[in-house]
Amino acid sequence: MFKQNFNKRLFLVLLTCLFFSILFFKKADASIVVSSGQFRLTAENSWDYSVKKNYARLNWEKISNLSSGGYTLYQSEDGKNWAAKSTNYGKAIRVLNVYPNTARSNTLKSWMDALGLKDNQNQNLIQVTPIALSNFNRNPDAYLKDSQGNFQYDVIMFGSWDSNNGLDLTSNSVNSLTHYITSGRGVLFGHDTVTSNKANFKNFAAKLGIYVYNTGTNNPFNKELRLGSTKVKIINNGYLVKYPFELSNDQQLTIPLAHSGAQLSSTAVRWMEFLPPFKTVSENSTGFIVQNQYGTNNHYLITKDNLGMIQTGHSNGASTVDERKILANTLYNLAQVTLDSEASDYTVKDTTSPESPTVKVKSGNLANLTLEMNAKDKGKNYQWYVEASTKNQGKLKSDIVSEEIISDIQGYIYMWDEKESTMPIVKKNEYGEVTNLTKKVEPEDSRIIEISGINGLKDENKWLHVVAVDRAHNISTVKHVQLKEILNSFQITEKYLDQEGRTIKNDTTREIIRNGSYKERVPTISNYQITGYQIDNQPSIVANENTSVTLNKIAAHHNITYFYKKKISISLRQTIENPHQDLALPKNGYAFANLVGTNFTLSTISEHYSFSFPSYLSHPSSQGSVYTLFLKKGRQNLRVETIIPEYYIFKEMRISTKSFSDNQPFIQKDKVAKLDFTSTSHFFLTISLQPKISSVQYPANYSWQKNEKLNFLK
């Protein structure tokens, strides 16, 4: 009994250990711990299919006794330079708009509400509470904190009005605001707030990464530093200009006239700058860019850590939709504190190109192949840590973890041609998105596409040029591959031609694996004799029936052409019609023959032959003599001329390709037969003679056999 209980307990312990091991390794797989901290943090590369964007899913240990400072997420691209990031993607944020008293400057709420942005619960994504600056200055903590003393807003915005309506912070509100900023929460300063003539706002210049100077030329540079325009341009295409509104790369936007306030941005991140024609403070003025070791005066929107400054406000309540979108993005990305123990970092981006694609034959036959394209994406490494603000332990720091942000392959751009180094055309829209994919991967989490209907026989010498495109629209280097380089097998086509180049037998094919061999004895064909062969366009090689043809390490299709000369036969006999009783009967018939061209004209190069064949009295079953010849190039016909003995005349010639007994022979009255061997290899000729003298005439004593005069036939 004890043993059974022990075994059960042991099994449960092992099962529990296995469960937590799987859980641990699953979490460990999500990210690499660069250095251990005071609490655990994991990061996992993820993809949002709805907005088609990478994000890092972050989870950390929940810390007890958390203060209103909550958690702040820090991100680095190199492990050295760190920046706080928004942790509120998809969640509503609360914004306190401290406007400079005049009712006409209380515009931020209506601007944000009109944009129609919603969170995951269909509430306003940016929820604005307005308060006049004078009220804020009286008791800032009453607005910044709730009844428990916790900060209740994610971001504060000061503005917007020209010169900030001449209003400044108080020393008390500076202290409260400093405490608020130290908690990691965001502040966006509007037009003419952090300037040289506002002693309290000016306290935040260093934190903003700017230097402030007097207006006019009363500054160390003796130049008017205010610079403005009604046009601005995005000069940093990073995360801030991509959410909630995705602004196109390098986009130019229209705004009401605004200008920088005699400030030089030094260590701040410049997101947007003014475009010419430059102004200072009015439409009829002229502004000039100043740029030196202290920075530049050409800045419309800057940020540093959880602070930002935008020049909205110079035109006293005027705003374009473009400007409102910029405001929404900036406010949202300055909301960098959360009380949750998880976040999604949407500021990450895969900026690394995929590896060059691989291409291989997947299936099919040589005439109808399916190719497979595959590419491995490469990502960008980020690091994170979380800072927790506690009531009893101060600030705690989590592990520093690293994760590769990789978007994976979305598709390929490819083309075919006859050149080895063609570059496929890649088209992008104003957002930097590739718009001319030849084929997308399916399903979306695959990296592979297939191309069907490729003719590996006809197109073996064509080149495929392909680039892989990942879902972040990074483009690989070009893969140039000639089709024959990836074929797994090759076709040997055997052709059979006569000396005139005519096909005498249907082509045959053999499929040979790559680097395999072909070794065959030359084929024999009935009624033909091999004369040679040719591999592709190489010189012809003389061959006989014992010759073997060999190809080794085959890595291309080949044509092997076998050449033959045609063997022809002619059967001849002679018959004597109406014999004369006193006239000697020839025992043999004789004929001259010549191989000639298509016009049957004799020439000095015509091969000469002489034939002797039996002569009979007319008898249908009589047999003849058979002669075999080989046709030669340019002389594919046979001219046969009958030799007529004395006292005889030619009557007719019966020609057949079937037999002597053919009931429907061709009958001609000419003693010269013109035999065309193009479509046959055997002719049967029956030559008919008859006596030249009548039955009442008496011939001289004569015997063809006795007086044989055929030396010329030899």
From TrEMBL:
The protein's name in its UniProt record: DUF5057 domain-containing protein
Provenance organism: Vagococcus entomophilus
Gene3D superfamilies: Putative peptidoglycan bound protein (lpxtg motif) (3.10.20.320)
